[in-house]
Amino acid sequence: MIVNAADIPLWAAVAVAFFLLVGATLALIGAIGFVRLPTFYERIHAPTLGTSWGIGGIMVASMIFFSVAASRIAIHEILIGIFVTVTTPITFMLLARAALHRDRAEQNGKAPDKHTGSERAEG
Amino acid sequence: MSAIIIFTAVAIAQLMLAAAMALASIRMFRGPRAQDRIIGLDTLYINAMLLLVTFGIGTGRVIYFEAALVIGMLGFVATVALAKFLMRGEVIE
Predict the structure, then answer these.
(1) B68 in a domain, yes or no?
(2) From B43, B54, B87, residue closest to A47, measured CB to CB
């Protein structure tokens, strides 16, 4: 199925362009932060901008575009959105635990301190 | 008019996503340790997936959605396997 971009009304075109640019800008900001932040435990936060509303904005734009152009509800892009939203915390928590394990095993001083319950009660 | 708006937005979004992919691959090649490289790969495939969906909006074809879905699923499995390898030293015990 091929749809023509000239067929869709102006309001839908403006909405599609807005959500596309929001999503792409957030993905770019996440990548810039990913390159510039100094340590691994800070860097792991930056790409989640792209995987939360970067994905969300572009998928909403795609849903609006194909729904309006084909004159029926086409929301299969929500599959990608749900899948990435569910799987990104899993991968990043696994990676952060692996990095913590490696830093603590090497004792190179890069790992954050352990916070146990007794320390938190004193502080 | 609406075609001009959509094509301009798609072109700008493609440039931004390509820049994001370039930054992620910089971190993937330079990253000081293995976990930085793995997150670089993760960011790279997420941005490639977004670029494919954007390309699908630009050309008006639905087929790119399926390619993006496959990239998302295989990328998740690859990143989890690499994280498991960093944690334990082997993937399947």
Answers:
(1) yes
(2) B43
